[in-house]
Task: structure prediction
Amino acid sequence: MLSLEKEMFIETVLSKLPPTPANYLQIAEINRNADASGYSLADLEAGANRCAIQ
Result:
């Protein structure tokens, strides 16, 4: 990938990103407000581990 032109490199990396998790907006709101009360943290944590680009 290091030999790709800049635009092709960006396109390749972006094409490998998984879809945004369904609970993304809830997690972002909790992070902004620093208040997780009222949320089931186990439910927010559930789902596929998408920490790495494959």
